[in-house]
Design a protein that fits this description.
By secondary structure, the protein is of the alpha+beta class. The chain has one domain. The protein has eight helices and four strands, in the order αβαβββαααααα. The longest helix is centred in the middle third of the chain and has 20 residues, at 105-124. The model is unreliable at 1-19 (pLDDT under 50).
Length: 213
């Protein structure tokens, strides 16, 4: 299955900064290219996305992301490993969307919803200023078919990835789910006051002093 990956795997994409003209052919479609794009060293074929160019739900998501100072870019497929459709780097607060999977506005919105949900998960980890991402929903709120699709996409080996990604897969198919979560992130309310955190997220928030009880 084609993947939508996040900043959870940033360690796989670290590289020495390279400018676009320094990348060798063998560097494309690899972690080297993704790291170069992430660090802003590779800019050819990487285009900023602006809310003013869109309407409806897409515009709303992008407006929230702009207010949160999360940068969104479309980038050519050569900057993505394997068949990654999108990436959110929580340590850089940047989203990159693979233009190879953007055939029309609905396909763009699907990926944007997914990656935007990861931003909301970043917010659930206390602040966008750190690089942590925490789940927002209890597993019993996620349909079984979504959980199965998540296993099909990401495998069974990493429970943390499944907990994070199953919500984002659900958000892909659910109108305004990402918009609503980002609106909380972009307000004076705390994510955990609006979305009661799952057990592991609650423990994280408690031990990191975001909540007291």
């Amino acid at each position: 299955m084609k993947r939508l990956l996040t900043g959870l795997l940033t360690s796989l994409t670290l590289c020495t900064p390279l400018t676009a003209h320094e990348l060798k052919e063998e560097h494309y479609f690899s972690g080297v290219a993704m790291g170069c794009m992430k660090l802003g060293e590779c800019t050819k074929g990487v285009y900023p996305v602006k809310a003013e160019d869109y309407n409806g739900e897409t515009k709303e998501i992008l407006e929230h992301l702009e207010d949160l100072e999360v940068k969104v870019y479309k980038a050519e497929p050569r900057y993505f490993k394997d068949e990654y459709r999108g990436l959110y780097y929580s340590d850089k607060n940047k989203i990159f969307i693979n233009t190879g999977f953007v055939k029309d506005l609905p396909s763009f919105l699907t990926i944007l919803r997914h990656e935007g949900w990861h931003v909301a998960q970043d917010c659930m980890a206390g602040t966008l200023a750190n690089s942590d991402i925490m789940s927002i929903l209890d597993h019993d709120k996620i349909p079984k078919d979504i959980i199965q699709e998540t296993f099909d996409r990401y495998g069974y080996s990493d429970p943390m990835v499944i907990r994070i990604e199953r919500e984002a897969v659900m958000a892909m198919y659910t109108k305004d789910m990402t918009t609503k979560a980002l609106s909380v992130c972009n307000s004076d309310e705390k994510m955990w006051d609006v979305y009661f955190p799952p057990k592991k997220t609650w423990s994280y928030l408690y031990w990191n002093a975001w909540i007291s009880k």
